[in-house]
Please model this.
Amino acid sequence: MEWRDEGVLLSVRKHGEGSAIIEVFTKRHGRHAGLVRGGGARKMAPILQPGAQLSVEWKARLEDHLGSYTVDPIKSRAVQIMGDRGALAAMGMVSALLCLGLPEREENTSLYARTIDLVDALGEAADWPARYALWENALLADMGFGLDLTQCAATGVTQDLIYVSPRSGRAVSREGGKEFADLMLPLPRFLRMDDPIEETAPVIEALRTTGHFIETWLMPALGRNKSPSARERLIAALKREG
Model:
């Protein structure tokens, strides 16, 4: 078995004497692990950094084997990510959530495209925090836990939607949720419109909402009782910078 592809590096762990097992979110083969011989060597450290774009060739005797990777760098994102605490935490969350949640070896072109858009923006574009919040929302949908932000769950209207029900994940209008406003989650307009912005406060509100459903819906489905710790570091960094 053999194929070539490209993708973003999610994780690296040492294996034996000088090798490493890496997980790559590839364009056509989904999340895919493989052994890199010599991947634990010092000279490979600058290449095998989470967030790096790699060209990979995978070989194995049988399809269900771990197999081995030959890797070539396409784009290093280490400087832009490592130089920003928030971006570093966001990359940690991207890696953790994809490694935990994505079915192995299943193509997912839409989430792949959104992930590449996000990691290209981390530490570079002013709106990367909003792109990250939108990425979390898209991930929830891909994992089968999508939020319905199209109309009010209480009244059916499609205007003035400012809340999300913490129970159903459905949007609620100002009028429909006024009696339970203190129990509702916020719904910033950019999250509903899937349109990134540069303001920090709405992003933190959006992350409060997506975080609730990651914690209460996604993590239990993955056999976890808590979100990865990188999420707390991300929110703390955004609050400092905001």
